[in-house]
C-alpha cells in the first residue's frame, strides 16, 4: 500500500484576468469550483494527468525545469491546494517543508513562534514542550530564542522553521528545495536528518535542482516536464536523461543565437579606438581606401592589436574573402554543448570573390568573461598562403576540448597575413562545455593522480562516468 | 454543518494560541504594552463625549444623563463589531502565507479576528462598570443575566458576517474599501450616540431592520436604563437570524474554500 498515491491528477489554474469574475463566482457557488468550467484560454494547466505512487519508507526525488509543476505537485500532496481532477491519497501525518517559517509572526519571540508553529503543524502544547529543547538545539538558536523573530537573519529563520517541521515526527515529509539555505554545516545536518527519517521508514518526497542529491539520496526519481510525468525510475538513469534533455535544449538555444549571429551585417571599417581617427577620415574617403589605411596602421599579426581584445562582438572586413557559414561539430554532428575532453570540429565555409594569394585563417576561444583561452592562425603556425579561389572549406579540428565547465565564445577570421581583415567574426559563436567534475580555472590538462600504497581512497559509490 | 462545528472545536487550541499571538504582537514594542487595551477605549470615550457634549450640543433629553455612560454602552460593543468586520474581511489575505504554504484550516483566521476583538471588548468592560459604579447607576442581577446572552448573539452575528466577507474579499478586493465606508454609515445609523427614542415614525421603523441596533439597545437597556429588560423579544429574533446568517456564511466559506489557496 503506497504512502502517497496520485491517481491521474491534474491541476488547472485560472489565469489572472478579472473579466468574468461574476460569472465565475456564480459558478463557484453553484458547483463549488472556480476552475472546472473555465475555457482553455483562461486557464493554465500546471499538472496534467500525473500518476505517482510512493511506497512507504521510500524517498522519491522530483526533478524538472522551472515551472514544470514540481511545487504544485508537492502542494497537492500536502493538501494545501486541491487537484482539479484526479485522486490524492496520503497516509499518515504530513509535514511540508515548503516555505519554512511561513507562519512565524515577526513581532514575537522565537520561543512563542515555536509553540504556535508546532500547534499549526498538529502537535499539542505538551508535545512541543517535550521537544522544545531539541528543536532549539537543532536550530542552533540557544542564545536567540527569546528574541523576536524579526531580528533573526534569514538563515536563523529557516533553521528554526526546519527544526520545527522535522520535529513534528511526520510519517510523510515533503521537501521543496529548502537545503539551499543555511551554511554548509547546517546543510549536512539536514541531510543527516533525512537519512535518519529514511532509516525510520518514513516516506520522503523531495523537490530539488540538486541532481547529485537525487542520485545519492533517492530511491526513485520522477521527471516532470510541462506538468506531465515524463519518466519515473532509477535516479541515475532519470537524471542522465534529464541532463541530456537540458543539454539538447541549450543546444537549440545556442543554435538559434548562432543563426542570428550569422546574419550580423558586415561593417566595412575596423572598429576599436586605434582606428577611430581613421574612421573619421573614412567618412570622407571611399570605404576601400579607409579600410586599407586602417589595416596599414594595425600592428603585426604576431601580436594581435590591443584594441581587438576590447572590441565587442560584431563582424567586419573588406569582404574580399567571406566566411559564409560556421558550424561547430561534436562526434555526432552539429552541436553547441560539449563535454570536457570531447572532440570538437569548427567548420568554416569560405568564398573568395576574386582569387587571392595573401590570406590567413584564424580562430580564438574566449571565456565568457573575456579571457582569451586560446588563439591561433595559419600565419602564426608558419603556413604560407599560396592561393584561394572560389568556394572552399576550412576545418579546425580539436582532438580534445580540454576546457573546464563554462560558456565560451568563438572568433573566426580570414585576413591578410599583415592583419588586414577580409572577414572577421568577433565573438559571434557560443558553445558550452559541461563537466561532471567541478574543477576550477580554464584549462584541464589531461591528467592522472598516482599514490604510493599507504595513501588510500575509498572506492566511489557509483560509477560516475557511465 | 455539525461536522464543521466539530472541526472548529477541534482547532480550539490553535485558535487560542493565535488569539494570544495577536494580542501579544499588537502591543509588542510599545512602552505601555497591555495597558493600551484599557487606555484605548477610555480615550475613545473621551473623544466622543467631548464632541457630543461640547461641540455638537444635544437637546434637553433628561434620560441621557450621564451621557458618557450611555455612549460607552453602545460604543464598546460597536468597536468589537466594526474592528472584527474590517479585520476579519481581510484575514484570509493577510494570512495568505498560511493558507498557501502550510496545511491550515482557513476558517480559523476569521474566527481569530472576531475572538481577539472580543478579548479587547472584555478588557474594556472593567472601565465601563467602573463608570457605572462611579455614577451610581443601579444594576439589577435579573437584567445582568442577559448580558452574556447579548454577547453571544453579537458573537454569532459578527462571525456569520465575517465569514461571508472574508470569503468574498479573497475574490473581490474592493470589499475592503467599500466596507470601511459602509461601517461609518452603519455607525451613525445605529442608536449609539443618540437614543432610539430620538427617532420617530419611518426612521424608527427602518431601524428595526438594523441588526446591530438591537444589540446596542439591548446593552443600553441592561446597563444604562432602569427597569426590566424589555428588548428580549428582539434579541431572541436576532439570535435566530444571526444563527441563520452564521450557517449561510459557513456554507459560503466552505464552498469557496478550495479557491483560497489559489487566489490569495
Description:
The complex is a heterodimer of chains A (466) and B (264). Chain A has 466 residues and is α/β, with parallel strands linked by helices. Chain A is built from 11 helices and 19 strands. Chain A folds into 2 domains: 55-245, 3-Layer(aba) Sandwich (Rossmann fold), CATH 3.40.50; 264-434, abc- transporter (atp binding component) like domain (Coagulation Factor XIII, Chain A, domain 1, Distorted Sandwich), CATH 2.70.50.60. Helix content of chain A is 29%, strand content 31%. In chain A, the strands form 4 sheets. Chain A has a 6-stranded mixed beta sheet, sandwiched between helices. In chain A, a hairpin with a 2-residue loop joins strand 11 (321-330) and strand 12 (333-334). With 264 residues, chain B is an all-alpha fold. Chain B has helices at 2-10, 12-27, 36-55, 67-94, 96-101, 108-134, 141-144, 146-171, 174-188, 201-207, 211-224, 232-263. Chain B starts with a helix and ends with a helix. Classes of the chains: A alpha/beta (466), B mainly alpha (264). At the A-B interface, helix 1 and helix 3 of A face helix 2, helix 5 and helix 12 of B.
Beta-strand portion of chain A reads 25-35%
Total of DSSP H or I helical runs spanning 4+ residues of chain B: 12
Cα-to-Cα separation, first versus last residue of chain A? 34 Å
Within CATH, the superfamily of the largest domain in chain A carries the name: P-loop containing nucleotide triphosphate hydrolases
- The counted number of beta strands of chain A is 19
Overall mean pLDDT of chain B: 86
Keywords:
heterodimer, A: 466 residues, alpha/beta, Rossmann fold, Coagulation Factor XIII, Chain A, domain 1, 6-stranded mixed β-sheet, 11 helices, B: 264 residues, mainly alpha, globular
Secondary structure layout:
The complex is a heterodimer of chains A (466) and B (264).
Chain A: E1 2-14, H1 21-31, E2 43-55, E3 59-63, H2 70-78, E4 85-90, E5 94-97, H3 110-120, H4 125-139, H5 154-166, E6 172-176, H6 184-199, E7 203-207, H7 211-217, E8 220-225, E9 228-233, H8 235-262, H9 276-284, H10 287-297, H11 306-310, E10 314-316, E11 321-330, E12 333-334, E13 337-339, E14 344-356, E15 360-367, E16 372-377, E17 388-398, E18 406-415, E19 421-434
Helix pairs in contact in A: 3-4, 3-5, 4-5, 9-10
Chain B: H1 2-10, H2 12-27, H3 36-55, H4 67-94, H5 96-101, H6 108-134, H7 141-144, H8 146-171, H9 174-188, H10 201-207, H11 211-224, H12 232-263
Helix pairs in contact in B: 2-6, 3-4, 3-6, 4-6, 4-8, 4-9, 4-11, 6-8, 8-11, 8-12, 11-12
